[in-house]
Amino acid sequence: MAQAAASTCEICTGGPGEHYCQQCDQLFCGNCKLSHLRAKSCKNHTFVSGRDINQEEKLLCTDHKESFLFYCQDCDTPVCRICSVEKHSRHLMTDLTESTKKLRSELAKVIELKETTSRQNVNTIERYTKAYREEVKAVIKTITEEGNYWKKLIDKKVEGLVKLVQDKEQKTLHNMSALIKVHRKDFENCQQWQKNIKEMESIADVLLLKNLKKLKVDVDNIELQQVPERSSLSYRNKKPLGTEIDSLFGELQFKEGKALLEKTENQQNTRSKESEKIHKYACSCCGNVQMSTNEPITEEICM
């Protein structure tokens, strides 16, 4: 592996070879790079810059030993100049660098949107938790005051109702805490993906495209769930005329939020079943294999 810090410019042999031209397979210093790009025949050349330029990893076409210049959208693969004519002449082609930039930009926007949504989901659950705890405190206070009204005669009933509320509170708060962990994990994943994208800025376009596609799969696999309706608690007083303990107290009403964790697990199982139905087929012109959720096509002709 040749590192740029230990190499010299192959043009002037004086400056540090910090820039690698992917088309010419040469190291350039900063000045020679500028001169190189001014030439009409070299104005579209692409460079890899940095302290760790790996000249052994040229990322060339295995058939023609040429650099990849285009991206075939029909076959979903980078192609060199010769391949673009021989195998992909009728295919939809775009510039490799521009395609990579476009994918990176789109992926960054998707991650940013999911990061924002997951952060909002966490904030919403935290607000729900605070409101629920305040309701619990209010209900316990009401029950306690009503218990004191009936003094020792109803102390045992008060204790039972408070315990019921507190037990329910613990169960509900546990569920809310689990929801926060799910959405916080989504938020942390988005932050890590953004960091990964920034760290990819200096690598070659074709390798960057490959890494971005892998990252896109991870991003698309995350399906942000909506925050379910929060749990709530209330207590309705009543003033009975009888003397039975049960008839002296009001009625507890629990409103449960949806079980997001169970829903997420079911969706993952559904996603696994759907993945078993993916088929693959080959293009009859170029031979490239593609994946599809539809039934296999016996003959696919590139237009």
Beta fraction? 5-15%
Q: Helical content, roughly?
A: 40-55%
Class by SSE composition: alpha+beta
Radius of gyration: 32 Å
Report the major sheet: 3 strands, antiparallel
Q: Give the N-terminus to C-terminus distance in angstroms.
A: 42 Å
Q: What overall geometry do the principal axes of the alpha carbons give?
A: rod-shaped
As residue ranges, the low-confidence spans are 1-5, 274-281, 294-303
Task: Describe this protein's structure.
- The chain is an alpha+beta fold and 303 residues long.
- It is built from 7 helices and 10 strands.
- It has a 3-stranded antiparallel sheet with strand order 2-1-3.
- Helix 3 (96-149) runs antiparallel to helix 4 (155-199) and helix 3 (96-149) packs parallel to helix 5.
- Residues 1-5, 274-281 and 294-303 have low confidence and may be disordered.
Which features would summarize this protein structure in a list?
single chain; 303 residues; alpha+beta; three-stranded antiparallel β-sheet; 7 helices; disordered N terminus; disordered C terminus
